[in-house]
Every structure is written in structure tokens, then in C-alpha cells.
Specification:
Layout: E1 4-8, H1 13-16, H2 21-28, E2 29-30, E3 39-44, E4 50-54, E5 61-62, E6 78-84, E7 89-93, E8 96-100, E9 105-108, E10 115-119, E11 128-134, E12 142-144, E13 150-154, E14 163-169, E15 180-186, E16 192-193, E17 198-199, E18 203-210, E19 218-224, E20 227-233, E21 237-241, E22 248-251, E23 256-263, E24 272-273
Parallel strand pairs: 1-3
Antiparallel strand pairs: 2-21, 3-4, 4-11, 5-10, 6-9, 6-11, 7-8, 7-10, 9-12, 13-14, 14-15, 15-23, 16-22, 17-24, 18-21, 18-23, 19-20, 19-22
Bound molecules: ligand LADIRMRS and zinc ion.
Family: Belongs to the KduI family.
Cofactor: Zn(2+)
GO biological process, one term: D-galacturonate catabolic process
Length: 280
């Protein structure tokens, strides 16, 4: 199946200061990733990170290369992380099948050629969210079940930021070149993710928001800590965070998001925290 893709270029923070709402959304917001029987990809020039979605309904779907890669196959020089946010599905990697239940993940190393996605049931399809980054080495493919993840409890109800962070694809769980992925769920009554906010100039990041109830939304904050902007985000939409930008959001209800990162290091804790009362 032919993938639909968009290319997003990198921007200087000096330029982004001048963007109006439409330009900000055009550059950083990713809409319509999960579409039945389609492959949708966004190729960002920040660390050449790809975010994508695949929802196989009528038939299985093969992940083909796209022109910006100038590669014979998608993972010729890349690694791939997948988290299934739908019902049971299977990812077949060069003939080996991995069944992914809801919120299970798969890491696929560089060099695998045939990546095929399918759903167990077309009435309740799998919904595969993907992140891919350039890779210099082949590491083994590995499924990450919900018991394999590292879990951290963060925040508190009094500061409206109580949440559970699950690390799926980090180097203490799976060998990777540069990709990191995880999932954070807000506790009922809390609204703020990633507060206190942080930046990590060594890595870019993409947040994919889901489990946002109908008629609710998340107000996502980006920009340099002293020059922030906001983007309103609906269910199953993603947002690109440049390395110089905070990435923090407040929902009108609780919600979940998948974070994915790439760049200079694999050190999850390498963050420069911002003082809440100094944000502007
Ligand atoms: O809620 C949070 O805090 C997060 O999920 C933070 C992300 O994991 C992140 O931004 C990692 O750099
Ligand atoms: Zn971050």
C-alpha cells in the first residue's frame, strides 16, 4: 500500500516567535494519523523522526518505503517502535509474527524488510502508532508487554499533575540506537502533563494524545520557556516538539499520551527543568 506522507522542516525559535495560530499548527500539529486502511506518516527534519499510524481493517498492510528515505525498504537505515492503541493486532517482521494486544509495543531493528500489519477483527481493528528514527546498528526485535515496562508515579492531585508514566522503549528495557518511547496516563481529576515543564536540547520529542474524551481537548504548550505558545489538540493527534521547546499540556479532562524521542543521547533523565513561576 502506498503510504501518505508529509515532510515537516525544522525552524529556529526566533522564527517560531512570529508564527500565528495557523502557521504554528501547520508546522507542529499532526492530524489524521489513524485512518482505516491507510498508512499516514510525518517525516520531521528534527532528528529525522517519523511519526505514523496504520489501521488495517479490510486487509493487512505492508509498510513500504517513502521517497524522502531514498531507501529500498523502510528500515534499510532505520529502527521502528510501535504501540498498539486499538484491539488485538499482529505485526509480521520478515516472517516472524508478534501479536500485540491493546497498549503492547514492539521494537523492530534496522535491516528488517517486510513489515506487515493486520487486525484480528475488522470490526474492532488494531490501531498502530509508530515512531521511527535513523539507526546505525541492528538490534534484535523485541515485544514489550504491559508487564515489561518501567512504571513511575509522578505529580500529586493537589498540583493537578498526578500521572503514571510507563517507559516502553528505553535502553534499560530494550537495546536501541536512539529511539525512546513511552506512555503517560493522567489520573482522574489531574490535567497537567510534564509540569514542571522541561527542555532537552539534546533530543526532540513528539507527543501523541489519545483517550481524550469526546468534546474535550488538550491545550499543549510549546516554545522556549520564556516565550511559550499553545496549540489546542484533539483526540488522536500529535505534536512535534523541537529540542529547544517545552512540551507540556493541560487537558479539559484526563487523557493519555505516547511520547517518543530521538537525538544525541539515550538518557531519559537528561532534562533541564523550568521553574513554574518563571514560565512566560
Ligand atoms: O508526564 C510527563 O512528565 C512525561 O510523560 C514526560 C515525557 O516522558 C518527556 O517529556 C520525556 O522527556
Ligand atoms: Zn521531554
Amino acid at each position: 500500500m502506498k503510504s501518505k506522507y508529509q515532510v515537516r522542516y525544522a525552524a529556529s525559535p526566533q522564527d517560531v516567535k512570529t508564527y500565528d495560530t495557523t502557521r504554528l499548527r501547520d508546522e507542529f500539529l499532526i492530524q489524521d494519523l489513524l485512518e482505516p486502511d491507510a498508512v499516514n506518516l510525518v517525516y520531521s527534519h528534527y532528528d529525522r523522526f517519523i511519526a505514523g499510524g496504520i489501521v488495517p481493517v479490510q486487509s493487512s498492510i505492508k509498510l513500504d518505503t517513502i521517497d524522502p528515505l531514498k531507501a529500498d525498504y523502510f528500515l534499510e537505515r532505520r529502527e521502528l517502535g510501535i504501540i498498539n492503541i486499538g484491539a488485538t493486532g499482529t505485526v509480521t517482521v520478515d516472517g516472524s509474527s508478534f501479536v500485540l494486544e491493546h497498549k503492547e509495543a514492539l521494537y523492530i531493528g534496522k535491516g528488517n524488510r517486510d513489515i506487515i500489519f493486520s487486525s484480528k477483527s475488522s470490526s474492532t481493528p488494531a490501531q498502530f502508532y509508530l515512531n521511527s528514527t535513523p539507526a546505525h546498528k541492528t538490534y534484535p526485535n523485541k515485544k514489550i508487554g504491559t508487564n515489561d515496562v518501567e512504571v513511575i508515579e509522578l505529580g500529586a492531585p493537589e498540583t493537578a499533575n498526578a500521572r503514571t508514566l510507563r517507559k516502553y522503549i528505553v535502553n534499560s528495557v530494550v537495546d536501541v540506537c536512539q529511539l525512546q518511547m513511552g506512555m503517560t496516563t493522567l489520573k482522574s481529576g489531574s490535567s497537567w502533563n510534564t509540569m514542571p515543564a522541561h527542555v532537552h536540547d539534546r533530543r526532540m520529542e513528539v507527543y501523541f494524545y489519545f483517550e481524550v474524551p469526546e468534546d474535550q481537548a488538550v491545550c499543549h504548550f510549546m516554545g522556549q520557556p520564556q516565550e511559550t505558545r499553545h496549540i489546542w489538540i484533539n483526540n488522536k493527534q500529535a505534536v512535534i516538539s523541537p529540542p529547544w521547546s517545552i512540551h507540556s499540556g493541560s487537558g479539559t479532562s484526563s487523557y493519555t499520551f505516547i511520547w517518543g524521542m530521538a537525538g544525541e543521547n539515550l538518557d531519559y533523565g537528561d532534562m533541564d527543568h523550568c521553574k513554574i513561576n518563571e514560565l512566560k
